[in-house]
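On clarity, I found the account of how folds are encoded harder to follow than it need be. What matters is that the chain and its backbone geometry are given together, residue for residue. The format is easy to grasp once an entry is in front of the reader. For illustration, here is how one protein appears when written out as sequence plus structure tokens.
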Amino acid sequence: MNNIKANNNKTDNLRTVITDTSGYDVKRIRKDFPILHTTVHGKPLVYFDNAATTHKPLAVIEKTRKYYEETNSNIHRGVHFLSQKATNEYEEVREKVRGFINAKSHKEIIFTRGATEAINLVASTFGRMNIGEGDEIIISHMEHHSNIVPWQMLAEEKNAIVKVIPINDHGELEMDKLPGLITDRTKLVSIVHVSNSLGTVNPVKEIIDLAHSKGIPVLVDGSQSIQHLKIDVRALDCEFFVFSGHKLYGPTGIGVLYGKEDILDSMPPYQGGGDMIAAVSFERTIYNELPFKFEAGTPNIVGTIGLGTAIDYITSVGIEKIAAYEKQLCDYGAEKFAPIPKFRPIGTAKDKVSVFSFILAGIHPHDIGTILDFEGIAIRTGHHCTQPVMKRFNIPATARVSLAMYNTKEEIDHFVHAINKVFEVFS
């Protein structure tokens, strides 16, 4: 217990800060990621775009290759050896995901193409069932477009209302405004756990508890928290939780929707087709049981199996160890970035992960990103699919450094040195 201290942020009593990094060997971990040993423009790659997507360990790469070499077959349909083997591997991953986020049942784990599809699934099924004219959906000012647009589309269809929790100058939710937004017409709160453009860790447990006190269900977008924090959906008690595999060191094109079993069971199917049915005739169709009711057609089998291997890899390292190491990187980065001339951070929340959005006065973020690329440094520039955040801070875009388990303090030092190249060009 000496290595764990409770977070002083009273808004989320589930959030703890782990400080123990003993046994964490970043040099060994880096050896597991082949792409980190490549060069860009003749310079060693420094990959600081992890909020967009993370790289894949060799175990994931080899697992996907092995699947195509030794197992490739469709699932849930065949009685032959390969089909049975593929089905078993696929369904084993569902159990791995269940354990990874501490869901109650494998029936609560729905495989999707990503977090975006998972949110759209909820909007198109639960949303259409439960939201009508004049009803309200609450989101926040820091949402990714994928947690804004589906609700706007639903609100337009149903003549409903989307309300927004504002953020302050630090990029933190103005939680004192939330109770005033909730009315007896509020039917859902859909909130991001960690902001992709600000790094802010939101007090989702407090939000869930407040919503539940009014009988309102909550969806949590965990796209940027699943790789940084220990997730326990039963402790959070959210109705829905979504995330994408490619930000969890797994393949692209695979994601997860967690939903409480009774709620998923009450929802209509999202798409029609093979495998989501129990029986079909021209008179009627009987839908399959959970979780298959929401998985129409041939799924991303190899992506799912790769996701399972990514979870195995993260589990072997330890998500708590990863969080502790990334906290060190976050503190080190904040210390090193602060003295950079003309450096203005966008997002200075007290509770945040290792994401640094910034602007350099008088220099466009795209120019920063282009010059750093020639130094071998990959950062993200633009609005990061959070245009309302940019408007809130009265800026068109930011440059963003987002760190992961394999980044190092030496890479941060190299970034700080490379920024001088930007100033040289624009001097």
Residues 22 and 43 are 31 Å apart (CA to CA). The first strand starts at residue 4 and ends at 6. The chain has two domains: 4-56+318-425, 60-315.
